[in-house]
Every structure is written in structure tokens, then in C-alpha cells.
Model the fold of this input.
Amino acid sequence: MASTSIGLKILMAVTGVIFLLYLLLHMYGNLMALGGKETFDTYAHHLRTIGEPMLPYGGMLWIVRIVLIASIIGHVYAAVTLWARAGAARPQRYSVKKNIGSTLASRTMRWGGVAIFLFVIWHLIHFTFVKPAINSSVSSGEVEASPFVMVQSSFELWWMVLIYAAAMIAVGMHLYHGVFSAAQTMGLTSSAVARSRARALGAVVGVVIVVGFLIPPFAILFNLV
Ligand code: HEM
Done:
């Protein structure tokens, strides 16, 4: 079942929904930065103590990480297999490639996905595993001690905000088409009305994620936090 094309599409849709739920929680958490240092640092600490004493310190974070790693493996496996099958079905390229009925978002799913994957690796180096003090106004000890200082010192730099803004636009476009595609896989796009509803949902999700994620970096850049 999982290797049939519809099985792979279901795998993509389900893992995509898991990512979306994670992103909504992550975005909500990031918005805590608007409350200032104490609010954000308390929240970041709380993330590690959820479930104690049933779970060890940081236990919930590891459960989330394992679910995300399993989802990424499933999502990428399905994407690459479907991509290879689409290539094998028509080995020679179309001589005139007209993108009839396709959108920029739908045509950039593959390379957009690769770009988002690379962004996540850099993002993990930046904020989770290495935490380099990129801004010379703070020391690596200060960055290590306070998640708020880490985030604030990063987004005081305009070029860092630019990198994140570009990445969030890529994520927003991927979600806009991804939500529509998932709805299609679930059989929710059989009429014109249903299709336009699925597109509208994709647009709302994309805009909420882009705007919600970019509020804290811009608020920091413009000294509002
Ligand atoms: C403006 C946008 C974003 C900001 C400011 C941001 C900020 C952060 C911060 C501060 C952390 C470290 C949290 C902590 O250790 O307490 C983090 C972790 C993480 N972020 Fe983001 N993030 C953004 C967008 C994204 C996006 C779009 C994705 C996925 C596509 C993502 C995926 C992750 C992951 C997987 C982690 C690691 C969580 C863990 O296992 O510790 N982030 N982010």
C-alpha cells in the first residue's frame, strides 16, 4: 500500500499535516518573544520541563524531535519516489513546456522543498545545536544562557531577518500548494467549489505562517521588543 502512488501521496499528506501542526505550535511559541526576555526564557525553559517527573528534563522535546525525524524521512522518501516515477513515466522532456493551470507555488514544490530542508539544517545549527554568537554585541556565553538574547542578537542584524524572510516565504508557498495537494489526495477537491475552498485554506495557512513567524524578527529589528 505504502509503495503505491496513492499510498505515497497519503504518506506525504499525513507527514505534511504533522509538520504544519508543529509549525503552528512553534510559531505560537516564537510570538512569546514579544513579551520580552523573562517571558520568552521562561517559555523556553518550560518546553524542557513539560511532563516532568514522568518524563526526564527535555523528554517531551525529544519525543517531538523523533516524530519530526520520522516524518521528514517519510515525506522525503515519498517525494523522491513520486518524483522518480513521474520522470520514468515520461523519460523525454516536453519540447514545449506550458504550465497550463499550474501556479508558481506548485512548480516550485520540489526545489522549494529542498531549499526548506537546507534552511532547517542551517536553522538547527543556528539556534539548537551550535548556537554561534553571530552578533558581536553579545558573547557566546550570553547566547548559551538566554534563548531571548540568542534570538534578539540575531534579528538585530538586517541580513539575518532577510534570510529568515526569504525562508518563510518559501515555507508559505510550499504550504499554500501542499495544503491544496493534501486536500486533493483526501478526495476533497472533486467540485469547483471544493477546489476553490482548498485553495483558500492553503492561502490562509500560508499567510498565517509567514506573518506569524516574521512578526518577532521584524519587531526585534525595529526595536519594538
Ligand atoms: C522566523 C522564523 C523562525 C524563528 C525565529 C525560529 C526560532 C527558533 C528557535 C529560537 C529555536 C530553538 C528553540 C529552543 O531550543 O528553545 C528553534 C528550533 C527549531 N525550529 Fe525554528 N524558528 C523559525 C522558523 C522555523 C521553521 C519555518 C521551521 C521548519 C520548517 C523551524 C523548525 C525548527 C526546528 C525543527 C527546531 C528544533 C526544535 C528542537 O528540537 O529543539 N523553525 N526555532
In short: The first helix runs from residue 5 to 31. The pocket of protoporphyrin IX containing FE is lined by residues 26, 30, 44, 47, 61, 65, 68, 116, 120, 123-124, 127-128, 147, 151, 164, 168, 171, 213-214, 216-217 (CB under 6 Å). The CA atoms of residues 96 and 218 lie 43 Å apart. The chain is about 75% helix and 0% strand.
